[in-house]
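USER: Please consider what follows.
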Amino acid sequence: MKKIHITYLLVSSATIFSSCKKDFLDRPSLNVPTEDTYYENAQEVQGGTAYLYNSVWYDYSDKAFHSVGEALAGNMITETGPNYDGGSFNNFTVLSTDGLVASAWTSLYKVAGNSTMLYRVLERKRTAANASYMDVAIAECRFMRAAAYFTLARTYKDIPIVEDPILLATTTSEDIPRYLQKDVLRFALEEFKAASENLPETPYQPGRVTKYSAIGMMAKVYLYQKDYENAKRMANMVIESGKYDLYPNYEEMFTSSKANNNIESLFALQWIASGGYGFANAVNVYAAPGTLLKPDFNTGYSSIYPTLDILNSYAPNDKRRQWSNMEHGFFRANWKNANFPNGFTYDTTGTDYETTTKFRNGSRANSLKYVVGPKSTGEALSDNGSSSICTYILRYADVLLIYAEAVLGEAASTADASALAAFNKVHNRQGNFNNVPVTSLTKDIILKERRAEFAYEGDYWFDIQRQGFVKAKQIIEAQERGSYTGSGINSVKATISSESQLFLPIPQSQVLADPLLAQPPVPYY
């Protein structure tokens, strides 16, 4: 077996580790030339932790984010080309050799590994004199490590935990087992709890996580575990803090970087267009209609777009359909380019697949979330059209719906006043549903609400998954994953036959590098 070579270097005031082969090891060099001379002040330390909000997440957020969270869930359809593994996420034919299976794994372990390494370095550099900012930075590292392992456990189920890469680098064994998912989730909870104890109650810089970010993520983990009492308790702590609220313009949250790090955001990935590939939000490139961006960038591939099923799932008077989607008649006066000199109109009346003004993908729709448009909007864009808009991982709306579902628990329904208040705050945001509240909650009502509220945000698959195999199979096989044709709908139904299909396979390259990954999982605790 080849040795793993990891380099440890300093780039643009951020700590970067690069790895190959057995990515989850993310082994550091034992020779750390910069540690003695760097992280000497708050600015250098905060520059190091800033990296954990950005590039390390890129290969997950780039395409796997939608493929896992939305295509498996039946919310989006991916193209059948190589960028999205031939459409395997659409029909549950995902293989261990698929590119996105590997890139998601690599990216998430890069988050975990970089967080762990920086955490260890900062612990060694911590003194009584610098404790005030070191403790916060260490907490940020532990928060990010927890977020990575929570995502890995939901995506791949039973996975390795590498708590100390430095210790690992000094051992002779290169093989690490998979640990039981329940233990990985416990590990993530412990890390979020530790982070909450040292993170500030308000962000020390825009976009930085806080004590309540960690508590909110704990609520989300507890909900996934069906520990409703603790999920309710954690969510209520965030609610009672009074530090968060719903942003007054839902659509703007996802189409303009000026809404970045708003009052609704508890945890978001931070992007910068000027950073280019790997540092900017690329959803504009992949999800936007082609002729919207191509005059400026030759991108905008419309390579992932809404399914008929999600479009038909919106209640008739749910404004989030128009706030989240481009459909026939959608117009933006300031989205101008050579193809749209008078503003952008989404027109599906043509007969071609896609001409200058006619949009004819399978569902006659494009997602609007994280699409910021062409140069004319004034948004900062990279050379390929990627943007600075943040990627929301936890919003206050999620905390409110977690609270409502946790109050419901295993009951068939609830009319609890606090649960209804939390639910309806989201349900009726910006006058949605004409401010008519829901008066009783069930699991199906809450799940439908979550689908509409968080469409295209990479989370609905995990909502389906946590319902258990029987319910998940029922939801998936009832979905319409087909497309419009000239004569109607070419119906496509997905089928799943085993619980293992609720998770991605471990990348084949990783199993070859570490045979223990092919063995049954073992306890971590």
Confidence is low (pLDDT under 50) at residues 1-21, 25-33.
